[in-house]
Specification:
alpha/beta; nine-stranded mixed beta sheet; eight-stranded mixed beta sheet; globular; binds phosphoenolpyruvate; binds magnesium ion
Length: 575
């Protein structure tokens, strides 16, 4: 049994498929001088063909997953369009190297250059982009055909070192039973992909590729974060039973769709969905969401040369408002910065970008971009219950400045005669410890609070959210639990609503604790809502409060986890 990080719940039993990304295989030959123009022509044709293939993939993925996640293909298109890349290859051809060797050598050079940047995820991704582009060109030059989704021919549990959005194009998604990944954490690309595929996933497994072979029977326990290789008959039979229970539970969850999230003693909780793209609204409604608690807007801003205009944004926000048919929608203003900034918003180099000009801090440096986003949100507010929320706020002054710019945006709309919501509610995304500890002091500036545990964990524990040092979910760390309690209590004190939109809200493990701390608005990825609702409907507020009081005495995340696990198991809520 190999232990990793539980990324998405579920049990999968099946054959292992070891996914290894294509490698650059090329033959080196010297060519005669007369053949150089012919080889250069082959290079040009291959680049054109690769460009066509990648544009098709980009357009498809942008539609399915949103521009942000499809951005990886745009990065590859940019490599193909880079005159420097092409002229380096052409230079080697002019020195009488065959074009395959020239492509292979130039790509290898970049893969080494970026791949050696230890520990920097975005640099490793860059290396992977050069590998993919190099492989694509070589395949075209060798006349081999390509069609998407051909590498997985039967249902299997995919096992890989890393898995990028580009790798997914080679796999037939309908055949993926689960994902077991060596690298990554709860918020890495593979985890997000697993969630959108709704399959069980375990990440951060460490070196496993040497211990599993394609065709081995494996069991993936997404809830426990475990991968079992070639299990004995008894374990297999046991897991088959649990799998049946799991499937039955999933079906039962479907039936909860129209039922309210009400505890046994009638405490009502609202279930909201997080979305990264308007395309996800249908899924949110299908899982019974009462509203959108977090609409991330980064996808509108990434992978393009200039910021989206006010009208384009308005249309995107309106799509969500229309489809939600009168249910509330919280739009979060742009949260990028540091490594992920769009190039039209680049700030001077910072060694620790996550502690630098990110979220609201970046928006306050680009007032025109910020105000155009605010105008679009305000206008959408005239058509439905829209609220705005600011990310990464660490001090009251930032909130005041953001609101001053919002007042300017309103005046601009007045001058343009455009209808908008004059009383739009403004929220504070509490994800920095300074904002958590002073939540009540923000009261004069805000109408509601939302707790962002993903960043709150990383800033409280000084633990990078992409890091995989700890197999235990650190949102159960006593420091985080105490901060969450403080924010909920502060909001109650100042009589303002509070929700939670970090991953913790979507983990059924944390549900009784959060209910016990007094949280009554949960916002999570649509796929997690039914399981959270199931827990809420099976417990009482009274017993949840007792559990929370007990948990506040515990000293480590492990103790908290064990305590909740035992509590849920005793109520037959954990499997
Ligand atoms: C959070 O930090 O918890 C959050 C909801 O925002 P994001 O995951 O987009 O940073
Ligand atoms: Mg955040």
């Amino acid at each position: 049994m190999l232990q990793g990080i539980a990324a998405t719940p579920g049990i999968a039993i099946g054959k292992a498929f070891i996914f290894r990304p294509e490698q650059l295989n090329f033959e080196k030959r010297l060519i005669v001088q007369e053949d150089v123009p012919k080889e250069l022509f082959r290079l040009q044709t291959a680049i054109d063909q690769a460009h066509k293939e990648l544009s098709t993939i980009y357009n498809r993925m942008a539609k399915e997953l949103g521009r942000d996640r499809a951005g990886i293909f745009q990065a590859q298109l940019m490599i193909l369009e880079d005159p420097g890349f092409e002229s380096e290859i052409a230079g080697l051809v002019k020195e009488c190297n065959n074009v395959e060797a020239a492509v292979g050598e130039v790509a290898t050079h970049y893969i080494k250059f970026y791949g050696e940047a230890q520990g920097k995820e975005h640099m490793r991704e860059r290396a992977a982009d050069y590998r993919d582009v190099g492989c694509r060109l070589l395949r075209i030059l060798l006349g081999q055909s390509w069609s998407p989704g051909t590498r997985l021919t039967e249902d299997a549990i995919v096992i890989a070192k890393e898995l990028t959005a580009a790798d997914m194009v080679d796999l037939d998604r309908s055949k993926i039973l689960g994902l077991a990944i060596e690298s990554g954490g709860r918020t890495s690309t593979a985890t997000i992909l697993a969630r959108s595929l709704e399959v069980a996933a375990v990440v951060g497994l460490g070196r496993i590729l040497g211990q599993v072979n394609s065709g081995d029977t494996v069991i993936l326990d997404g809830g426990k974060g475990a991968l079992l290789v070639n299990p004995d008959d008894k374990t297999l039979a046991d897991y088959r039973r649990r799998h049946e229970t799991y499937v039955a539970c999933k079906n039962e969850l479907q039936s909860l769709h129209d039922l309210p999230a009400l505890t046994l003693d009638n405490y009502r909780v609202s279930m909201l969905a997080n979305i990264d793209h308007p395309g996800e609204v249908a899924g949110a409604l299908a899982q019974g969401a009462d509203g959108i608690g977090l609409f991330r807007t980064e996808y509108l801003f990434m992978g393009r040369e200039e910021p989206p205009g006010e009208e384009e944004q308005y249309q995107a926000y309106m799509q969500v408002v229309r489809e939600m048919k009168g249910r509330p929608v919280v739009v979060r203003t742009l949260d990028v910065g540091g490594e992920k900034s769009p190039w039209y918003m680049v700030m001077p180099y910072e060694p620790n970008p996550f502690l630098g000009c990110r979220g609201i801090r970046l928006s306050l440096n680009f007032e025109d971009v910020f105000k155009s986003q605010l105008r679009a949100i305000l206008r959408a507010g005239a058509q439905g219950p829209v609220r705005v929320m600011f990310p990464m706020v660490s001090r009251v002054e930032e909130m005041r400045r953001a609101k001053a710019l919002m007042a300017e945006a309103k005046q601009e709309l007045d001058r343009a005669g455009a209808p908008y919501d004059r009383n739009m509610q403004v929220g504070l995304l509490v994800e920095v410890p300074s904002a958590a500890l002073t939540a009540e002091l923000f009261a004069p500036e805000v109408d509601f609070y939302s707790i962002g545990t993903n960043d709150l964990v990383q800033y409280t524990l000084a633990l990078d959210r992409m890091s995989d040092v700890s197999p235990i979910d650190q949102s159960l760390h006593p420091a985080v639990v105490r901060l969450v309690r403080h924010i909920i209590d502060a909001a109650k004190l100042v009589r303002k609503p509070v929700s939670m939109c970090g991953e913790m809200a979507g983990q059924p493990m944390s549900t009784p604790l959060l209910v016990g701390l007094g949280l009554n608005q949960f916002s999570a990825a649509a796929g997690s809502l039914p399981e959270v609702k199931k827990v809420i409907r099976a417990i009482t507020l009274k017993e949840a409060r007792e559990l929370a009081a007990h948990i506040l005495q515990l000293a480590t995340p492990e103790e908290v986890k064990d305590c909740i696990e035992n509590w849920l198991t005793a109520r037959r809520l954990y499997f």
